[in-house]
Amino acid sequence: MFGRLRRRSGGSDHRLDVLIVFRLLLERAPGPKEQQTFLTGLGEGRGLPWAAQRVANKPEYAERLGERDRFDTVTDRAQRRPATAAERTQGLPETVAALVADPGVRAQYSELELESPRGIDPAHPQTYRRWLEHHRSWRAATAPPPAPGLLTLIPADADWEAAVAAATGRFVALLEPGQQLDPDVEAWLGPHADADVLLTDGDQADGPVLRAAWDPDEARSRPPAGLVAVRRELAAQCRLDPDAPAWSLVRQIAGRTPPPDVRRVPGVFLHSPGGPAPHVRVHHRLPDPAPLVTIIIPTRDRADLLGACLEALLHRTDYPRLEVLVLDNESVEPATADLLAELSADPRVRVVEQPGGFNWSAFNNRGVSLARGEVVVLLNNDTVALDPDWLTELVGHAVRPDVGAVGAKLLYEDGSVQHAGMSVGPAALTPHLFRHEPADSTVAGGALLDVRTVGSVTGACLAMRREVFEQVGGLEQDELRVTYSDVDLCLRVRAAGLRVVWTPFARLTHLANATRDTTTPEEKPRVERERAYLRRTWGELVEFDPWLSPYLVNRDGAPLLAWRPRPAGRPGTTPPG
After folding, report:
1. What share of the chain is helix, strand, coil (3-state, %, to 5)?
2. What backbone torsions phi and psi does residue 494 show, to the nearest 5 degrees?
3. Confidence tier at 577 by pLDDT (50, 70, 90)
4. Does the pLDDT value for residue 5 go beyond 50?
5. Alpha-carbon gap, residue 277 to 209, rounded angstroms
6. Beta pairing class for 375-379 and 293-299
7. Glycosyltransferase 2-like domain: from which residue to which, for each copy (predicted)?
8. 248/302 same-domain check
9. 370 vs 178, 279, 294, 323, 348, CA distance in Å?
10. 197: in domain
11. What is the CATH number of the domain that holds 311?
């Protein structure tokens, strides 16, 4: 069987062969030693089926495949279709070999990936241009059928009302001076012609701006970097600000009730000559009177950490109505006993004994059950608020009816980013986004400067309405005692149809793992069990993060350009089963 479909002897072709085999079966590029082994075998004439079988024999293949069908998995990755009966009959190695030899499949891959298998840094202009060339080749190889006449382009300085009235396309879009639009954009918009608004990605002089699902908060904060195509009938109801026409258009869309059907069509289609766009901060007013907030802080000893945390809460926070609930987990140090006694004298503070082994989830569940506030904030004792209005900012978002959970910008002691939201996806499940970036960096089109929807936020500082916490069942305290229960909570918030929001305007320092280090060898088995539970429970939702562009992959907190887009996730879903 392995004698058919032998490949050419060219080393360059074989390098691409090896890459595609690994991508189709393992969803990764081969390492240097693996490359050499397979290049040698293919050079000796062993054939692509041999290579496919050898990769499929790796234990890693079975682990990655899980319960999925092995034939449908490779044909979906290669050509976005289920496997045929003939492919199942001929066997997996021959099926993979035929897919690798297909010109349309080969056009989706580039040997450049072997040089940078983890992805491309979008901040480097030269490597970005190489990625963009590959991106266009991939689009050409996978393009939907043409959709001519779908779009009418309107110059930004034209009479908007007259131009919309004269438009013939189903959608209209603004084009500003100096902007260039890729000619295949209509084909990619075509499959979404039933939507009200279509948004693409774009690039500027400082690099690409790649966004995820439609986010009304982001739309209000910053002008769009990509194309904004609006259904002609809806566009006729909009009025433009001549100083920021495209931005005024998306702001009106974000404010419409009921909300229109807005879809993101990922891909860099619009190219603009300008630099970083300006952004604005949107303030959300608190109800009058402001809701009582209960801040829940589990702690054990470390009076130095707890004291600094409480000093900022009680004496440098301008929120008018708060209570602090300290859950003391069997502290034994005299300094901690003295501090807790001092705190107990403050009418805003309650100290509650919390005996037993450390269970972060159970501790916080108990704290919420004792809370008097309408809003609860889960807070680590190794955090220190930096600005007086941090709590006002969190509560302003937490009381919004479409928001279920809110996270803060957490910084390391050196001022770099520790937490700016978490990506829920297969690369590392939940790595913190933009870790170690400067706090005010304009990276990724200003993502660190704007309120935005994210896949998850850390429980080190998490605010939500108490009714939402109770509605979704609180924290999973049996299966997720220490790690991932905050992620699980956010996934249940999303399953309830609410958004998880991150704000850069609530800033705290966070000495991650200062109280309890979860990275030690002793902790690893528990962390792996909890990770496995999260995958079993949520399935697809922890594989495909809708709030990270499918063209980005989160590598240890650094969003890098992916060589091909991963499937787009859904903003919310229910757990399988």
Report:
1. 35, 20, 45
2. -65, -35
3. very low
4. no
5. 10
6. parallel
7. 294-472
8. no
9. 59, 40, 9, 11, 14
10. yes
11. 3.90.550.10
pLDDT band of 7, cuts 50, 70, 90: very low
Whether residues 458 and 338 fall in one domain:
yes
Instruction: Identify the weakest region by mean pLDDT among 71-80, 345-354, 417-426, 498-507.
Output: 417-426
pLDDT average, residue stretch 35-41:
93
Q: Given a cut of 90, is residue 248 above it in pLDDT?
A: yes
> Domain range spanning residue 329?
293-561
Mean pLDDT, rounded, of the chain: 90
pLDDT of residue 575: 45
What is the helix (H) or strand (E) element at residue 494, kind and residue range? helix 485-495
Q: Is residue 129 part of a domain?
A: no
Structural domain count, the chain: 3
Of 49, 48, 74, 50, nearest in space to 61 by CA = 74
In a domain, 287, yes or no: no
Whether the predicted pLDDT of 8 surpasses 50: no
8 A C-beta contact, residue 256 and residue 209: no
Mean pLDDT within 288-316: 97
Residue at a domain's end among 271, 301, 336: 271
pTM: predicted TM-score of the whole model, two decimal places: 0.87
Domain check: are 185 and 266 in the same one?
yes
Instruction: Tell me which residue of 97, 132, 142, 98 sits closest to 112, measured CA to CA.
Output: 132
Do 22 and 107 reside in the same domain of the chain?
yes
- For residue 103, whether the previous peptide bond is cis, meaning omega lies within 30 degrees of 0, is no
Is residue 365 assigned to a domain?
Answer: yes
